[in-house]
């Protein structure tokens, strides 16, 4: 019998999506602040509003705790590097991540496959000016959303916005990549997908998009560049710290 020499299909990437709240008891802040770098502590102290200061401390400190759990190091031993447009990376660690927050909710996506680029975005659904999609969406996307009304229109806007932001964040290119240069699905009930990327008809094959609702009234999207496979996603909370290796 001839030997099967067909390539083994690549395993889908494994992604952890962590979720936590940025509210914290005042008696916890001192301990969380101690986990931050000198630069982060200075930045926190420069924030005028206490709510913004608390959110920043809880966001960065919890992020460090999660990363420390993956790497088995103390949270305050972690160093970050930043790309040209501010995308953070962990110095000297085989771990990729991306972070987003809206209101009191923070999300961070992690993978040990450093060949992948992750982008995550979360938004709280709120009233939006009707002409906003025309300013930021592509012509095709605008035509699609213009056919909708009411709650469907609003849901489509936030579907489109989070998916497009996730793509931009995965590339780490900031808004230097025009949001109208690529198309995503956005009509409610339509599976999340990147359907056009620039002028290259094959470029979408290396992308996957996932959408989910982290909390009622919120919508989130995860973009993965570097694999056309749908990822295996595990949703985690802070209570899961120490339960992963």
Explain the overall architecture.
With 245 residues, the protein is an alpha+beta fold. It has one domain (14-240): 4'-phosphopantetheinyl transferase domain (Ribosomal Protein L22, Chain A), CATH 3.90.470.20. The chain has helices at residues 26-33, 38-46, 50-71, 132-136, 139-146, 150-171; strands at 14-21, 80-82, 88-90, 96-102, 105-111, 117-124, 182-184, 194-197, 207-212, 218-225, 232-237. Helix 2 packs antiparallel against helix 3 (50-71). Residues 4-9 have low confidence and may be disordered.
Report the average pLDDT across residues. 90
CATH C-level class is Alpha Beta
- Please tell me the total number of domains: 1
Q: What is the fold named in CATH at topology level?
A: Ribosomal Protein L22, Chain A
| CATH architecture assignment name | Alpha-Beta Complex
Task: Please count the helical segments.
Answer: 6
* Beta-strand share of residues: 25-35%
Helix share of residues?
Answer: 25-40%
Please trace the helix and strand order, writing H or E for each element.
EHHHEEEEEHHHEEEEE
CATH homologous superfamily identity: 4'-phosphopantetheinyl transferase domain
Major sheet characteristics = 4 strands, mixed
How far the N terminus sits from the C terminus, by CA atoms, comes to 42 Å
Structural class: alpha+beta
CA-based gyration radius: 19 Å
Shape: globular
Key structural traits:
245 residues; alpha+beta; Ribosomal Protein L22, Chain A; four-stranded mixed beta sheet; 11 strands
């Amino acid at each position: 019998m001839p030997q099967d020499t067909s390539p083994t299909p690549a395993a889908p990437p494994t992604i952890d999506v962590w979720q936590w709240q940025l509210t914290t008891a005042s008696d916890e802040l001192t301990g969380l602040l101690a986990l931050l770098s000198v630069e982060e502590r200075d930045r926190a102290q420069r924030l005028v509003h206490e709510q913004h200061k608390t959110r920043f401390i809880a966001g960065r400190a919890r992020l460090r705790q999660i990363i420390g759990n993956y790497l088995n190091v103390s949270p305050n031993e972690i160093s970050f590097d930043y790309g040209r447009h501010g995308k953070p990376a962990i110095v000297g660690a085989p771990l990729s991540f991306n972070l987003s927050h809206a209101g009191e909710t923070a999300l961070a996506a992690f993978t040990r496959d450093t060949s992948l680029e992750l982008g995550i975005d979360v938004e709280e659904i709120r009233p939006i000016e009707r002409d906003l999609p025309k300013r930021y969406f592509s012509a095709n996307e605008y035509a699609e959303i213009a056919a909708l009304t009411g709650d469907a229109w609003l849901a489509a806007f936030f579907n489109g916005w989070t998916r497009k932001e996730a793509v931009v964040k995965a590339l780490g290119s900031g808004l230097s990549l025009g949001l109208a240069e690529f198309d995503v699905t956005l009509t409610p009930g339509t599976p999340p997908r990147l359907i056009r990327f620039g002028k290259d008809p094959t470029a979408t094959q290396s992308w996957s998009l996932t959408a989910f609702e982290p909390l009622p009234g919120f919508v989130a999207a995860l973009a993965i560049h570097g694999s056309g496979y749908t990822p295996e996603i595990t949703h985690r909370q802070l209570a899961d710290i120490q339960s992963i290796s």
